[in-house]
């Protein structure tokens, strides 16, 4: 079983998310795709997590039940939709100011709530250019404070330089990093993300140490996401 997830980022409305999810449910009910599938819509478009063939997850939430945190949503808002899956540590959130300690606090809170957590790590081009050891040291720093024995943890390796660029890391680059990360992560599922698209899904998923993919732009059109799923086995 692989894990295939779609991160909508700041795309789609509630209406188009509903259409996308209805179409995805119909597609998955006609195919026997042996994978775990998750969709992360923006928070204004969260839908009841009641689809049979995939989960709805949240791209972000604050580590609180409720309270005075303008612009944030907390556990109460997720519970209203029975959401139990959360993305933490995405490079775009880190870029917006979330430091490692904040990511770790978020992780600790939602792990305590028994959430499934997709936890993202990834290096900049500058770090990549310093070599594999520097890259690994940086990636390990992004795991600081994260309980790697948490059973509902999924890690996504998403090199920042490959995200949204249209050009994924090469198969060799993915293999090198995943092999080293697996030594630290053991049995924790490890996804790759960064310009995954229908054309490269199959070869990326066939690599040793790749347990799935986290997809941004190529997952926003239902036809393209279904094609990725078609190519995933
Ligand atoms: C992402 O941001 O999680 C991502 C993988 O984006 P893209 O597929 O567009 O590179």
TrEMBL record:
PROSITE patterns: TIM_1, TIM_2. Substrate binds at residues 7-9, 164, 195. The active site is at residues 90, 158. One of its GO terms (biological process) is gluconeogenesis. It holds the Pfam family TIM. Gene3D superfamilies: Aldolase class I. GO terms for molecular function: triose-phosphate isomerase activity. The keyword RNA-binding does not apply. Keywords: Cytoplasm, Gluconeogenesis, Glycolysis, Isomerase. SUPFAM superfamilies: Triosephosphate isomerase (TIM). It is found in: Cytoplasm. Involved in the gluconeogenesis. Catalyzes stereospecifically the conversion of dihydroxyacetone phosphate (DHAP) to D-glyceraldehyde-3-phosphate (G3P). Homodimer. This is Triosephosphate isomerase. The gene is tpiA.
């Amino acid at each position: 079983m692989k894990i295939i997830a779609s991160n909508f980022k700041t795309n789609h409305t509630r209406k188009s998310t509903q259409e996308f999810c209805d179409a995805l449910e119909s597609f998955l009910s006609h195919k026997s795709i042996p994978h775990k599938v998750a969709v992360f819509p923006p928070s204004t478009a969260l839908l009841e997590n009641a689809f049979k063939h995939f989960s709805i997850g949240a791209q972000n939430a604050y580590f609180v039940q409720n309270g005075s945190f303008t612009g944030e949503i907390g556990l109460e808002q997720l519970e209203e939709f029975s959401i139990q899956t959360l993305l933490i540590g995405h490079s775009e959130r880190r870029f917006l100011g979330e430091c490692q300690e904040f990511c770790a606090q978020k992780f600790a809170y939602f792990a305590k709530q028994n959430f499934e957590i997709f936890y993202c790590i990834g290096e900049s081009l500058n770090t990549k250019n310093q070599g594999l050891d520097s890259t690994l040291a940086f990636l390990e720093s992004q795991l600081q404070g994260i309980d790697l024995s948490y059973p509902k943890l999924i890690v996504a390796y998403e090199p920042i330089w490959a995200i949204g660029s249209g050009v994924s890391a090469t198969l060799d680059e993915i293999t090198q990093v995943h092999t080293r990360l697996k030594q630290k992560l053991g049995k924790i599922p490890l996804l790759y993300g960064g310009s995954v698209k229908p054309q490269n899904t199959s070869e990326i998923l066939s690599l040793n140490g790749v347990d799935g993919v986290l997809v941004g732009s190529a997952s926003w059109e239902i036809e393209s996401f279904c094609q990725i799923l078609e190519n995933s086995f």
